[in-house]
Amino acid sequence: MHKAGLLGHCAPAWKSVRMASSGMTRRDPLTNKVALVTASTDRIGFAVARRLAQDGAHVVVSSRKQQNVDQAVATLQGEGLIVTGTECHVGKAEDWEWLVATAVKLHGVIDILSISITNSNLDINMKAPALMTKAVVPEMEKRGGGSVVIVSSIAAFSPSPGFSPYNLSKTALDFPSACSSGWTRKKRKA
Questions:
Q1: Distances in Å between the alpha carbon of 173 and those of 87, 91, 137, 170?
Q2: Per-residue model confidence as pLDDT tens digits over 46-67
């Protein structure tokens, strides 16, 4: 059966999501991996951090407010997960540079970068993912590779009246994703 539209392209991913959430016995595929997750104290970012930690990763959560970081860390550690965290405003270069340096200092490497930005600020949505990826990729290369996940929204493909800045900011996330994907692929082949 042919699946049309966006979901048709995601069918292989849906299968793995179903398998992972079905309670099937699986080993921790991310054991000894370090994941850095931005905007990870609630909503999608928190769910990503939780799932990565459940799969065995050492997760570094971050948010603009330290009290939110402390609460998320306590919740996840209360579930027996390996999590640390620190305050970071991804719109401030000095914050994310410090976040990357702190994660590397604590864990030695970064294997996974998940960027989840939940506001409509064009400057943050356009610059932060590209600059954070640029800062993290050299650390990943030291370990032989890694993964960068930039969380967007259906708003990038389905604009809503009255939400133009938000829609535009989410559409803007696709470009740095595509560019950095091509850049890292070329570096691996060289």
A1: 23, 14, 17, 5
A2: 999 999 999 999 999 999 999 9
Outline where 109-156 has alpha helix (H).
122-142
Q: What is the pLDDT of residues 83-98, one digit of tens each?
A: 999 999 888 888 888 9
CATH class given for the domain over 28-189? alpha beta
Residue positions annotated with a catalytic role:
166
Closest CA to 72 of 32, 113, 43, 111: 43
Tokens of 2: 């042919």
Q: Find out whether 74 and 100 touch, Cβ atoms under 8 Å.
A: no
Domain residue spans of the chain: 28-189
Nearest one of 167, 133, 158 to 148, comparing CA atoms: 133
For residue 10, give both structure tokens. Answer: 């995601």
